[in-house]
Fold:
Amino acid sequence: MPIVIENEDHLRRRFSKFLPRMSAAPPWADDEAIREELFSVERLEQHAESLAAAQSVSSQPERGRPLANRVRDNDEALLEAYRVIAAAIKDKRPITPAAEWLIDNFHLAEDQIREIRTDLPPSYYRQLPKLAEGPFKGYPRIFEIAWAFVAHTDSRFEAEMLRRFVLAYQRIQPLTIGELWALAITVRVVLVENLRRLSDLIVGSQTSRDAADALADRLLGVGIRSPEAAAVALREFTDSSLTRAFAVQLAQRLRDEDPATTPALSWLDERLRSQGTNTDEIVREEHRRQGAANVTVRNIVTSMRLISELDWAEFFEGVSLVDDALRVGSDFAGMDFPTRDRYRRAIETLARGSDRSEIDVAQEAILIANRPCPIKK
Structure:
């Protein structure tokens, strides 16, 4: 399949579906799940090349925008979601499959957040190349790369797919040693971000269903109460838009009741018509949404496990263009890992203090090392 380079305007238009607009708003201004069109590996490679052609890097990476605050916020939001779901379980209220995945694997998310805080200290973060424009302006280039990968795989991690994605990107624009090491961290950041968004959705839906159940109990006289007049019970919902989860839960609770004796059913139908929908449509959409959330949460949990199990040193050396340059004309590949890493650190330091790229420095080092030694007389 030929590689197609998308022009920048087309790329940004397509990205705008799941990224914030090209403004000062941070990526978290949108609370929708990070989920876009699902790509095959060949299409991912095309997209990586398009993204590389569209991105431009700031000349002052140290002035980037921080990620640490959002990571902390996500940690707190996930903990609150855990507490809400645990309370629902304790009260024997039904929860969705996505909520079950979240509460059963909450410890994995906590582990990922600890890894992020450990492996992305401020000094390291400042050195990562930052984007000069676009929806991720001021954030690391590798962060947008990780975001695109997660969005177009529905959070499903496969090491080989990521390897091909990164190599395709570097056919257009090479990544630095620091960026490649930061790839594991930034993929974790995006997965945690996506889990937080889905947890917000799960908690919001849980709250809506609980409210619908409370209303249905009042209307049906569940427990020790006698049925409450519909006009009185429904009065507080007159001026507010009904959420999909609320409407579906209320419809399910009242569906076996006689409309003649339960006027709330007519009220619900009328309210949904005023919102441009009906009971059948919202039930289908709610089931579709819950199914999609369940798949994505499951993918996130599985991906977190796989990321923790992957040998990232081996992955790094399989995508590093600097390693490729050092292997040409030298015995770099035959050295042990700590020695190879010392070479890479020296190259990073030399490139950072000059106007040369890391690959240029590596190639020049090989040329110098291979020059014949002058014969002393």
Q: What stands out?
A: The longest helix spans residues 177-220. Residues 203-292 form one domain. The two ends are 60 Å apart (CA to CA). Residues 1-23 have pLDDT under 50 and may be disordered.
